[in-house]
Amino acid sequence: MERIQIFDTTLRDGEQSPGASMDVEQKLEIALQLEQLGVDVIESGFPVSSPEQFRACKLISENVKNSTIAALARSTEKDIDAAADSIGTAARSRIHTFVSTSPIHREFKLKKTPQEVLEMTRKAVRYARNRCAEVEFSPEDATRTEPDFLCQVLEVAIEEGATILNIPDTVGYTVPDEYARLITMLRNRVPNIDKAILSVHCHNDLGLAVANTISAINAGARQAEVTINGIGERAGNAALEEVVMALNVRKDLLGLETGINTRQLYTTSRMLSTMIGFPIPRNKAIVGENAFAHESGIHQHGMLSHRETYEIMTPQSVGRETTRIVLGRHSGMHGFRKRLAELNIIIKEEELKRAYEAFLKVADRKKEIFDEDLFSIVSEQFGTTTRSLVLEYLQFHSGNTSVPTATVRIRDQQEIYEEASTGDGPVDAAFRAIERALNITATLVEYNVQAITPGKQAMGETSVIIEIDGRRSTGRGSSTDIVEASAKAFVNAISRHRLLQEVVHP
Ligand code: KIV
Ligand code: ZN
């Protein structure tokens, strides 16, 4: 089977997305993870643009052994020298140089004639080829470039020694059919094209980046330029995980493979999302929270009979734990019964109907029903008791010259527990004080804060997921003070955990 090269540009084009910047150490961490993932080429940055970028490219080159390290350069000697110097120590290196070729870029950005752009291409590739054994060339804004001129530019780049020709859809303008035709045209018309491989680089302005990438690959491109989670300029680039899984799942149709270890996809995606603080949308393909979750009764029934009725790949194949059968108001009796059984709640068949009706009432009011909700529904129906903890008092101090401390008082029915603790910040101090007061150890798995009313006095809502003794529970808290909202959510999650513990199976 033919292999598609995966060129990851998370650290270059991805990092150009507003708000996604990473420091040098973070970039190295991502690069090492990309190596684990098995990407063929890591574009490590644009070294001439800043000393930090240069340092990052250098550090990555010194530490990554199994992927080619590329660095970006405009068509000037200064840029190309910076690129060559920064990646010189890499086991395998590549200079990626580019020139704008479309009429609009030539006129308004470069202020150059077509002839001058041709000369810039010739000189840049020649110079780069003298500094590095492997050169990739990109005619920027290729999809809005006149076909004849594009062919001429590519021919010159190959003559000067470029062996990878990238055809960027810089502004996300093309559509799948048109892009495939462009690739086919280049394969037919550029005379020396057999000396190079064609690469594709798609932006997502019309939401077509992945579709365009697959379409171009189908037409003969053999390298895909992609980013983790699809981050990148404006609406982003084609998402690596989506392109790779499309090739993987549709091998039957496309007959192509990649060197990616797909089981590393989820970890890589989460690592990047946490590092740059870009949450992954719930419905994002492959790595979103809902990508392997089923709520409707019909789907749950189908899934429980045969997984492939509603899943085209397994969650495990992308490094996720398992399919989630989400209970909500669309869930049927099958899903409800199965989840109770998984939780080891055994109810007689005649009681099941009553419990299911109670569940539907709650589900009408609540978006998603968690395990602890199920326990409380069942325990209400069958008479077990529940206790909730109340955060009665919270005081905290923090500042840039003092150690953050927090004191809490928690009521558990008639009992009062009070404790104080220091921490890395006021929220951490409050969490530690709560753990001490209740004599438990909870691992914080997820922590989210959002404003739920506008303005300076906005109410903040905090949600947490904690794990105690291998069991997860969620909690929410709101307040105009974020530390208080966080402490309330933490106490709420512990309360819910207790509920899980105390349910007596009816
Ligand atoms: O989108 C683009 O055209 C680019 C080039 C530098 C390849 O990122
Ligand atoms: Zn780009």
From TrEMBL:
Species: Alkalispirochaeta sphaeroplastigenens
Protein name: 2-isopropylmalate synthase
Residue ranges occupied by any Pyruvate carboxyltransferase domain in the UniProt entry: 4-266
Entry annotated with the keyword Transferase: yes
Renumbered residue ranges of the record's region Regulatory domain: 390-506
Keyword RNA-binding: no
UniProt-listed Pfam families: HCS_D2 (PF22617), HMGL-like (PF00682), LeuA_dimer (PF08502)
The protein's role, per its UniProt record: Catalyzes the condensation of the acetyl group of acetyl-CoA with 3-methyl-2-oxobutanoate (2-ketoisovalerate) to form 3-carboxy-3-hydroxy-4-methylpentanoate (2-isopropylmalate).
EC number(s) recorded for this UniProt protein: 2.3.3.13
Keywords: Amino-acid biosynthesis, Branched-chain amino acid biosynthesis, Cytoplasm, Leucine biosynthesis, Manganese, Metal-binding, Transferase
Gene from which this protein is expressed: leuA
TM segment ranges: none
Cellular-component GO terms for this entry: cytoplasm
